[in-house]
Amino acid sequence: MEIIGFIAFFATVFGVLYMYFTTRNKERMALIEKGADASLFNTGREGMKSGIQWSKLTLKLGMLSMGIALGILIAALLVNVVTIDEDALYPSSIFFFGGLSLVLFYVVDRKIK
Questions:
Q1: What is the 3-state secondary structure (H, E, C) of 83-105?
Q2: What is the rounded CA–CA span in Å between residue 103 and residue 87?
Q3: Proportion of the chain in helix, strand, coil states, percent, rounded to 5
Q4: How many Å is the maximal CA-CA distance in the chain?
Q5: Looking at the predicted structure, is the pLDDT value of residue 12 above 60?
Q6: Which of 22, 23, 63, 109 could form a disulfide with 101 if both were Cys (CB 3.0 to 4.6 A apart)?
Q7: Could you tell me the residue ranges of all domains in the chain?
Q8: Does residue 97 carry a pLDDT above 90?
């Protein structure tokens, strides 16, 4: 029974990706046939090779990892101090500090620009 869910999940992911790429290819080919300029497909980001700024991605992932680690640490410390249920404390602190780290990334990213 579990194998059916596993197969269905990957079939769905494959189907969505297949439809996305084939549709995008057909749209681009139709525009090229009509004589549209190929620069239309550029996303407007200058100086980027593949459209991904790896330095920002690694900064974001690093800050997220540190936020999650801080959330686990704070939860471990609070388990001994507060009488809140441990099963609720760990996920809530992980999500809180992970989200806080992403908000801090947004602030840092805006100051860089």
A1: CCCHHHHHHHHHHHHHHHHHHHH
A2: 25
A3: 80, 0, 20
A4: 69
A5: yes
A6: 63
A7: 1-42, 52-108
A8: yes
Cα–Cα distance for residue pair 63/109, rounded to 1 Å: 12
How would residue 49 be classed by pLDDT, with cut points 50, 70 and 90? low
**Residue scoring higher pLDDT (20 or 42):** 20
Question: How far apart, in whole angstroms, are the C-alpha atoms of residue 18 and residue 38?
Answer: 23
Q: How confident is the model at residue 57 (pLDDT cuts 50, 70, 90)?
A: confident
* Cα end-to-end distance, the chain, whole Å: 51
How far apart CA 17 and CA 22 sit, in angstroms, is 9
Structure tokens at 84: 């809140």
